[in-house]
Amino acid sequence: KASQAAEKRGWHLYLVGGAVRDLLLAETADQLMIKDIDLVVDGFHKSADVGAGVELAKALQELYPAARLEIHGAFQTAALLWHKDPELNSLWVDIATARTEFYPYPAANPEVEASSIRQDLYRRDFTINALALRLTSPRSGELLDFFGGLLDLQAKQIRVLHANSFIEDPTRIYRGVRFAVRFGFDFEPRTEEYIRYAINSGVYDRTTQHNSRTPALQTRLKTELKHILEAPYWKSALQLLDNLQALQCIHHTLSLDAELLRQLRLLERCLHRFDPQLTLVHWQMRLEALIAHLEPKYREKVAKNLQLQEDSIHRLQNLAQTQAEVRELLPQLQRPSQIVQLLKKYDLPMLILIALQSPRSLRKQIWHYLTVLTHIQPILNGNDLKKLGYKPGPQYRQILDDILAATLDRVITNKPEAELFLST
Ligand code: ATP
């Protein structure tokens, strides 16, 4: 229906980007899991009007009323969103008009009829993401491969379209790493040289210096970090980023040394043990662990630059001080109730961050607190107090705290002992 609507208006419609790549990579239909579809509209003999994508999206929304329409920017792009449709499940369809305004390309080959789709594809990141499948006739189903993307897919390589690609947009380094690890591809040797050149020339300064001209870059870097850190292959991706020295885009001192690797392994054990219900955002915890590995004076700035959530920023701001406090006080405490009194002030993510960087003995105490002490309940509860004739009121809190402390320290181990404890 989308191609008919485009043909009726005298436009070409193309499927572009990741969906084409994934179609070509999938060996069987059930390997395909496309949730994002990128479509590009182009004129037939000349470029389509800038609003063509939006017009087509509106026409399609009339045909598919279940889809939600979103328009981004005055005439830029539109998206149709099917949210949990019984047939389509969740599907996001972006419709854009072929862009010719960026990186104007000297028409190398005058025979190329669809010059604006070519230019649109030329501003993309990698050859394997710069393929297009024509959906409109004539020659519908034809693959447009101007930059050798198909050969690169077959050769399993990630190749940029031009030498300046990473200078223009350093987040492409992260994207490249993500695709390389996800598909088991290698960087084409010259592309790897371009990455190393971009890093050596200090391109990361643009990602780490926060100013009004770079928020979009920081947001894109955070998005890429999220994609990487929530994927099953996150460790290999970090390793590859480190080999390319690209962790410097987060901070110029960040590298994946043996200590950080140990901490990340421990973090996984903690998350597995203490957060099986996934109430914490695990990719964010991994990112916090990376930032926590920096010297304390850098942490807050990096967290703010990456626009982490308020609670993450707050944690990273306070980590050094909290850690010092726990390191000083915890070894002096003997009774379980004192340990609970100290550690209950901190939330689980903070305790995990502290544990990651603490010496073994301290780590064991925090582990014991999280696995054993936090689960111990006072032997008497509010109902028991009522039955014993205590009038409900603010003093309940104090009595229950005392009973909990006595339970923790095994001063009392059963109800009769608890009642005796109360009467004294
Ligand atoms: P995924 O399957 O991981 O979503 P994708 O290729 O669909 O992969 P998107 O982030 O959805 O990734 O981007 C869609 C397309 O937009 C890409 O295939 C690429 O052509 C283009 N693109 C995205 N980000 C950039 C970028 N930073 N520079 C150039 N082109 C980009």
Task: Give a verbal description of the structure.
α12 runs antiparallel to α17. The longest helix has 20 residues. The termini are far apart. The protein is 51% helix and 11% strand. The radius of gyration is 29 Å and the shape is elongated. By secondary structure, the chain is an alpha+beta fold. The strands form two sheets. Strands 3-4-5-2-1-6-7 form a seven-stranded mixed beta sheet, sandwiched between helices. A two-stranded parallel ribbon has the order 8-9. About 3% of the residues have low confidence. Bound molecules: adenosine-5'-triphosphate. Adenosine-5'-triphosphate binds next to β2 and α7. Belongs to the tRNA nucleotidyltransferase/poly(A) polymerase family. This is Poly(A) polymerase.
Given the C-alpha coordinates, what overall shape results? Answer: elongated
Radius of gyration (CA) equals 29 Å
Q: What is the terminal-to-terminal distance?
A: 82 Å
Classification by helices and strands? alpha+beta
Helix/strand order, N-terminal first: HEHEHEEEHEEHEHHEHHHHHHHHHHHHHH
Subunit organisation of the chains: single chain
Percent of residues in helices:
40-55%
* Overall residue-averaged pLDDT value: 88
Task: Write a brief structural summary.
This protein is α+β, with helices and mostly antiparallel strands. It has 21 helices and nine strands.
Quickly list its features.
424 residues; alpha+beta; seven-stranded mixed β-sheet; two-stranded parallel ribbon; 21 helices; 9 strands; binds adenosine-5'-triphosphate
How do the strands and helices of this protein lay out in sequence?
Layout: H1 2-8, E1 11-16, H2 18-25, E2 36-43, H3 52-63, E3 68-72, E4 77-85, E5 89-97, H4 115-122, E6 132-134, E7 143-144, H5 149-155, E8 157-158, H6 165-168, H7 171-183, E9 186-187, H8 189-200, H9 204-208, H10 215-229, H11 234-243, H12 258-274, H13 282-292, H14 296-305, H15 310-329, H16 336-343, H17 348-356, H18 360-371, H19 382-387, H20 395-408, H21 415-423
Parallel strand pairs: 2-5, 8-9
Antiparallel strand pairs: 1-2, 1-6, 3-4, 4-5, 6-7
Helix pairs in contact: 7-10, 7-11, 10-13, 12-13, 12-17, 14-15, 15-17, 17-18
Adenosine-5'-triphosphate (ATP) binds at residues 17-18, 36, 38, 124-125, 129, 169, 171-172, 175.
Protein name: Poly(A) polymerase
Family: Belongs to the tRNA nucleotidyltransferase/poly(A) polymerase family.
